[in-house]
Design brief:
76 residues; 13% strand; 2 helices
């Protein structure tokens, strides 16, 4: 892989928004015993525990596509 394993703020925003939408449409959370009812807070908890079942796809200028799983990324 060419790019770094650091999750950008744009990727973070997109993942949180997409996962919160999934949760709002009655998708099951990957966390156990969640007391929260706010979908965005649940998505944030899932992100920081690296339990979101999504993948980052980065398109590079030379046409190469890199795929990263969330559990491989560094989240700040």
């Amino acid at each position: 892989r060419i790019t770094s394993n650091i999750l950008t703020k744009y990727e973070k925003a997109r993942i949180l928004g997409f996962r919160a939408l999934q949760l709002a449409m009655n998708a099951k959370s990957t966390l156990k015993n969640v007391k929260e009812t706010d979908c965005l807070k649940i998505a944030t908890l899932e992100l920081y525990e690296k339990k979101i079942p999504l993948m980052i796809q980065r398109h590079l200028p030379d046409g190469i596509i890199e795929n990263w799983y969330i559990d491989e990324m560094e989240i700040y």
